[in-house]
Amino acid sequence: MRETFEFRIAEERARKFLAPGLGMRVNEGLRKVVLPGDDPRVREIGAIERKLRAEGDLFFTYWNVERRYSARELESAELLNLVIRGAVAPTGAMCGTGYDASEACPHCGVGARQTTDLILDTRRIAKGRDFAKTLAGEVVVSSRFVDAFQEAGLRGAEFRPVLHLGGKPSRQPEWYQPVTTSKPLKLDAKTVSGNNPFDLDERGDHRCPKGHVAGLNLLSALHVDRASLDGSDLFITDTRWGDRRGELRPEPRWLISARLRDLMTTLKAKGHVLEVAHLA
């Protein structure tokens, strides 16, 4: 596995704190820095960030961690983290999808119940994809993925047609919303969550006191309890990440079995990347 860190830093601050020539300018006011995870300069950037944060300021304005696995690592994994790429806008609620938040957690909002089929402007979903997700975490999958999943006899989800905003129900929907029927997977303590790689949110500002939300961001690879597996092929975690803000909602992580990975490889499914999930 190769891990890389990406940071976006205001050019003025980059010139002040970083070695000349490190990174590349995105525009006149912004620099992009990409480093291997084991590069000592990652720790240096972390030290600068912590110092400026203590002074009420910040160093980088964006960060991302990317993990790339060899084909052998992905093929040998028992369980994989399904990272869905490609945001769909507007969200379901903005298109008329009904939600009942009367029993949702007052701290994090988790537990709001969807009361109607998912309604989206399906024209905004990129063609040729098999997975997509709204900013509110509503996941959709293509009809060809659903057909292949069901024909293979895989388990763990049922699929409900996605309705097009302002349109009539289609006899052959292009998109479906997966609703998991598998047992949610429990996180192992090795999973690390926090605000950014250098701020693990020790005060718990973004953690739900009832345990629904682990933190603002997932920082490490996923580690889950093997005992929580139930033989299904599609899962979500029992814990979420994120913040309740506007249309944003805390989201679980989706995971797949090796059987589903093999099916998706044969299908040449698009709109996602896979990361190895570890069983404890």
Protein architecture, described:
The chain has 2 domains: 2-68, no CATH class; 74-186 and 221-279, no CATH class. Helix content is 17%, strand content 32%. The protein has 280 residues and is α+β, with helices and mostly antiparallel strands. The strands form 7 sheets. The protein has a 5-stranded mixed sheet with strand order 18-22-5-21-19. A 5-stranded mixed sheet has the order 6-10-11-14-12. Strands 2-3-1-4 form a 4-stranded antiparallel sheet. It is globular and about 60 Å long.
Which key phrases capture this entry?
five-stranded mixed β-sheet, 22 strands, globular
Summary, kept brief:
It contains five helices and 22 strands. The protein is an alpha+beta fold.
Q: Structural class from helices and strands?
A: alpha+beta
* Strand composition percent: 25-35%
Largest sheet: 5 strands, mixed
Gyration radius over CA = 20 Å
Number of helices: 5
Broad shape: globular
Arithmetic mean pLDDT? 96
The tally of beta strands, per DSSP, is 22
Contiguous low-pLDDT stretches (5 residues minimum) are none
How much helix, percentage-wise, in residues?
10-25%
Distance between the first and last residues' Cα: 19 Å
For the largest sheet, list the strands in their spatial order: 18-22-5-21-19
**What order do the SSEs take from the amino end to the carboxyl end, as H and E?**
EHEEHEHEEEEEEEHEEEEEEEEEEHE
Tally of separate domains: 2
List the helices and strands and how they pair.
Elements: E1 2-10, H1 11-17, E2 24-27, E3 30-36, H2 40-54, E4 60-68, H3 71-76, E5 79-84, E6 87-88, E7 99-100, E8 113-114, E9 119-120, E10 131-134, E11 139-142, H4 143-151, E12 157-161, E13 163-164, E14 175-180, E15 193-194, E16 213-215, E17 217-218, E18 223-224, E19 234-236, E20 240-241, E21 254-257, H5 258-267, E22 272-279
Parallel strand pairs: 6-10, 9-13, 16-20, 18-22
Antiparallel strand pairs: 1-3, 1-4, 2-3, 5-21, 5-22, 7-8, 10-11, 11-14, 12-14, 15-17, 19-21
